[in-house]
Amino acid sequence: MQRSDYLLSQLDVLEAESIQIIREVAAEFERPVLLFSGGKDSIVMLRLAEKAFAPAPVPFPVMHVDTGHNFPEVIEYRDRRVAETGVRLVVASVQESIDQGRVTEETGRRASRNRLQTVTLLDAIEEHRFDAAFGGARRDEEKARAKERVVSFRDEFGQWDPKNQRPELWNLYNTRIRQGEHVRVFPLSNWTELDIWDYIRREELELPSIYFAHPRRVFERDGMLLADISYANRGDDEPAFEATVRYRTVGDASCTGAVRSAAASLDEVIEEIAATRITERGQTRADDRASEAAMEDRKKEGYF
């Protein structure tokens, strides 16, 4: 007899939806790949992929677009997590793109390799003939991400055009593409930052240590705390100091800001996130503060 009082929690509903998306894409596309940075969203995605196919291994590789300016703690975690799961890791190197003349290193105080990732990613997709790339974007992050479909079409140049996206009715996804085109797939579209942290706590997932409060030498720029590292191009008018901070997101260390925090445990982080009214990208990503259109411009170029 079917129970009439069977209820799913919020996390169970989100998990089931994401697993369905991952399975459908794996069935419909020939060469999917999961974009894995070692950040909390990609960590949750990899866990969902494990659940989607257990007890079999994850049937597609993971790929990290490596700027060469990453936090060492994140790279160490990435390599260890990949070894634990046995999944194949593809590293697409921005430094190699620079060495090959595919992109030009930015100069100046605010130089970053964040935008350079676009060419490196698209070259890797073409080289490996990936036709679907799982990304960890969530609609709550900012306005441009909220326009995305779950299965988001990219043309033969890797570009995103919001006017050219296919309609999605309920959980019906259009997966048809032509030669040279691909899709970005966002299984976490309907999750929030707080959902991610609640799921990490429930699943007892390990995270890179920079997500929790720790002492770090930083400097202030445009109201953000950036790590005092050689490639951050700190000016003489930007004195470095030590502060107790943590990171809400990970990325290129030259443009990813820390937040002052004493949250040293999962429970403390969740309490802190529940009280904040500023999105993680708005608070910690210098490149997204350039203008309201910054993220949408980069999406149209093909990275996000």
Automatic annotation (TrEMBL):
Key word ATP-binding present: yes
Any matching Pfam family: PAPS_reduct
GO MF annotations, alphabetized: sulfate adenylyltransferase (ATP) activity
Signal peptide span: none
Domain (Phosphoadenosine phosphosulphate reductase) ranges: 32-257
EC numbers: 2.7.7.4
Enzyme class: transferase
Stored SUPFAM superfamilies: Adenine nucleotide alpha hydrolases-like
Record-linked NCBIfam families: CysD, PRK05253.1, PRK12563.1
Name recorded for this polypeptide: Sulfate adenylyltransferase subunit 2
Gene name for this UniProt entry: cysD
